Amino acid sequence: MRGVRAYVVPVPLLAIAGVGISAFLLANHYQVVSAAFCSIASWSDCDRVNASAWSEIAGVPVAALGLIGFSVIAALALELRLREVPRFRPWHLFAVALGGAAFGTYLTLVEVMVLGLFCLLCLASFLLGIAILAFAVLAILAERRELVRKAALGSSTQDPP
C-alpha cells in the first residue's frame, strides 16, 4: 500500500504544467502571443475562445484564475510531499482541486454549449485538473488507511482492563 506522499508526487508536476498552460493562455488573452496552432478544425479555436465574453469573470481573465489555482495546488502538494510534518492535509489539496475541477467543468460546458468551440489548451488544463483531483482523492484514502492502521495498532497494544 502506498502512503499519502506517494500519491502527491506527480501533483506538483501536473500543477506546473497547468501554470505553464495558464500563463500562455493569459498572454494569449492579452494578445501577446497567438494560439493559431490550436486551430486545427472549425470546432477548435483557442484564440476565439480566449477572446470571447466568457474569457473573463468580473474583468479578471479566466486564465489568471487558472494560474493562481494551479500555483496554490503546486504549493500545497510540495508542502505535503516535502515537510516531515505538513501544515496541511490531503483534504486541503482535494478542496482546491475540486474547486478547480468544478470550474473547469463549467468552462468546458460553456465552450461546447454556448460557444460551440473547443480550446485545446483549455481542455488540456481541464484534464490536468481532473488528474490532480484523482491524486488528491487517492491521497485522502491513503491517509485514512494510515489513520485506521495506527488506531488498530494503538488499541492492540493496550492491556485489557
Distance between the termini: 33 Å
Structural category is: mainly alpha
Oligomer: single chain
List low-pLDDT spans.
Answer: none
Q: Give the overall form.
A: elongated
Structural domain count: 1
Summed up, the helix count is 6
Q: On the 0-100 scale, what is the average pLDDT?
A: 92
| CATH architecture label | Up-down Bundle
Instruction: Please provide the count of β strands.
Output: 2
State the name of the first-level CATH class.
Mainly Alpha
Rg calc: 20 Å
Q: CATH-wise, what's the superfamily?
A: VKOR domain
Description:
By secondary structure, the chain is mostly helical. The protein has one domain (4-156): VKOR domain (de novo design (two linked rop proteins)). It has 6 helices and 2 strands; from the N terminus they run H-H-H-E-E-H-H-H. The chain has helices at residues 4-8, 10-29, 46-51, 62-82, 90-115, 120-156; strands at residues 56-57, 60-61. It has a two-stranded antiparallel ribbon with strand order 1-2. A hairpin with a 2-residue loop joins strand 1 (56-57) and strand 2 (60-61). The chain is elongated. The relative contact order is 0.18.
Question: Which helices and strands occur, and which strands form pairs?
Answer:
Elements: H1 4-8, H2 10-29, H3 46-51, E1 56-57, E2 60-61, H4 62-82, H5 90-115, H6 120-156
Antiparallel strand pairs: 1-2
